[in-house]
Amino acid sequence: MNIEGAVIIITGASSGIGEATARAAARAGARPVLLARREDRIAHLAEELGDALAVPCDVTDKAQVADAVQSANYKYGRIDVLINNAGQGLEAAVEDICIEDFRDLLDVNLVAPLIMMQAVIPLMRVQGGGSIVNVSSGITFFPRPLSGAYNSSKAGLNMLSSVARAELAEKGIVVSTMLPFVTTTEFYDALKAGSAVAKKEAEASASFAHTPDRVAEKILDLIKSGCDRADLVPQRFGGSLAE
Q1: Is 232 helix (H, G, I), strand (E, B) or coil?
Q2: Contact 77, 130 (CB under 8 A)
């Protein structure tokens, strides 16, 4: 897909990978639609980017998602790309995972992307095509201790993406999966549980951490190519990234 002029909805756009992707998309001539709960951040970013729309939205709320998609379609008349980037982490041993925290995590990492996809697919079908990129995690390449909750939610997203890709191909809607690895964002400051442990591991992984900008460029490459997935996982952890 040609990114120039494309209307691109980005969830979790207030910081990290989402913000970096919005900036990269704008530089490429796209029209970003910024979704996040932190209204002040996305409003400031939209003003900075120019031809962009900021829509405060809790992506776990189906009604809010419907309103956000309607607002984007009303302003631009179409939706070409959805980037499901919003997500949250949780670090805990399987026997210690709080069930309520796990349910909340699944809502953000797995149910919300489905809600977003269901909101844009009918519009894309009428348009004759579109692109959806679901941002998963390279952690799904291996069973790292304490990642049971987060890993399983993202593994579920991987399968949801693969099935959606198969179902929607004949409608001209391409579904791809992006699998970043350790990334220098605010992710570790907003975990449901286990942030202290996660931050220590992030510090230990600093030598091969990526910037959000690098992930953003890979996401845009996926939109352009239509490939089924891309990762930034080093080969020693099962990914494709040469070290």
Answers
A1: coil
A2: no
Residue 197: what pLDDT?
A: 56
Q: What is the CA radius of gyration of the chain?
A: 17
What is the number of H-type helices and E-type strands within the chain?
Answer: 8, 7
For 34, 140, 143, 242, the CA distances from 238, given in Å and listed in that order, are: 33, 10, 11, 11
**Rounded Cα gap, residues 42 and 6, in angstroms:** 19
| Residues of the chain above pLDDT 70, percent | 90
| 143 backbone dihedrals φ, ψ, rounded to 5° | -85, 75
Indicate if the alpha-carbon torsion angle 20, 4, 64, 168 is positive or negative: negative
Does residue 115 have a pLDDT over 90?
yes
Cβ proximity of 193 and 143 under 8 Å: no
What does the alpha-carbon distance between residue 223 and residue 217 come to, in Å, rounded to a whole number? Answer: 10
Alpha helix locations (H) across 128-181? Answer: 148-168
CB atoms within 10 A of CB 241: 15
Q: Is-catalytic flag, 150? A: yes
Q: Which of 74, 76, 150, 188 is catalytic?
A: 150
The tokens describing 162, both together, are 């693969």
Distance between CA atoms of residues 13 and 22, nearest Å? 7
pTM score, whole prediction: 0.92
Pairwise CA distance, residues 234 & 208, whole Å: 8
Closest CA to 135 of 94, 98, 85: 85
Domains and CATH numbers, the chain: 7-228 (3.40.50.720)
